């Protein structure tokens, strides 16, 4: 783990702050924690500043009535080697996620069907879409995918309309791609960027093969546990100031304002959060454009917990505000169903009081499944989370050409990481880990710290 850092006690509640770390990391999500862990393992002093009172960012677990559930990122793709390697290193386990979307039943327009409700012409257009997604990403360097972006960057909806798909067919695609997945409407989603992202999951129809036993939120908890007092919570950064000697970060905390000066800084935040940070000097124009234009979707997860196991609850894809429903891996011996929904179908729900949202969600669930009233309902509405303000970032037409190179880039002593630090596959847990490790590697090369081989980088235990 490297040498112990030098700590100095601050006034107030007894929180502790490092006076002058080698590297300051902003954000204790998977990306920031992965970066910090790598830097500490190589012998650097590191301080992590986190706005929330917990680690994990857009992952996390919640305990209600003796039941533990994932409230954020949950599914792990077989192709996500960096995340799987980290899970293995931390001694955590992966478990198969189940049948998945490929074998789910559909519920669209109030009717059930065993497969995607597409007529002949629409089905042919959808098949062409799958082929075109594979072709668009063929031969593209994922580390420089913006260089291959076409001049005519259509949205997914524009592409489907050009292929002659009907409104009913587009609604079905919107349900599987947006409501149950990417959370951004098809009209705002770049076809090319979506193709590159799908390729990063192993191709069309792949992904969501595993879950983390005990919840994906346990990954960040384990990382934060290793780092110990190097992680300081409830300390949002409000100013980043660079000069010839390094970088100074000003933050606020329950103890009052504070400042940390470091040789380098890693910023591992959703782009929406950069709009509340003052930079001196300002970042280059491409970074400012990226922070201003980044598009995030809306998403909600709802866990319905019952007093007994819910046997035979099938995976369901629905165009209701429940979206994608499947058996929950809630701990504590309880059975449950988890619903994940995003996109425009969710918008009318977001303005309702929490109690009304819960009543509506339970009614919708019982139309889909023959289940009793749940004993516990756990809801997480990510657009209501101040330190996230959205869900996934999905690149709009023109975004890759406009600022793709800046994603995961650097300006001065500041390195960007986070789940959006990988242009080819933004908003995956694996992208968060990968961009954090990449930022750490660049810092280690620049400040000439001898690299040691990393042990235990397997593909995760299943």
TrEMBL record:
<protein>
    <submittedName>
        <fullName>FAD-dependent oxidoreductase</fullName>
    </submittedName>
</protein>
<dbReference type="Pfam" id="PF01593">
    <property type="entry name" value="Amino_oxidase"/>
</dbReference>
<feature type="binding site">
    <location>
        <position position="340"/>
    </location>
    <ligand>
        <name>substrate</name>
    </ligand>
</feature>
<dbReference type="InterPro" id="IPR002937">
    <property type="entry name" value="Amino_oxidase"/>
</dbReference>
<feature type="binding site">
    <location>
        <begin position="50"/>
        <end position="51"/>
    </location>
    <ligand>
        <name>FAD</name>
    </ligand>
</feature>
<keyword id="KW-0560">Oxidoreductase</keyword>
<feature type="binding site">
    <location>
        <position position="420"/>
    </location>
    <ligand>
        <name>FAD</name>
    </ligand>
</feature>
<dbReference type="GO" id="GO:0016491">
    <property type="term" value="F:oxidoreductase activity"/>
</dbReference>
<dbReference type="InterPro" id="IPR050703">
    <property type="entry name" value="Flavin_MAO"/>
</dbReference>
<comment type="similarity">
    <text>Belongs to the flavin monoamine oxidase family.</text>
</comment>
<feature type="binding site">
    <location>
        <position position="237"/>
    </location>
    <ligand>
        <name>FAD</name>
    </ligand>
</feature>
<feature type="binding site">
    <location>
        <position position="31"/>
    </location>
    <ligand>
        <name>FAD</name>
    </ligand>
</feature>
<feature type="domain" description="Amine oxidase">
    <location>
        <begin position="30"/>
        <end position="444"/>
    </location>
</feature>
<dbReference type="InterPro" id="IPR001613">
    <property type="entry name" value="Flavin_amine_oxidase"/>
</dbReference>
<dbReference type="InterPro" id="IPR036188">
    <property type="entry name" value="FAD/NAD-bd_sf"/>
</dbReference>
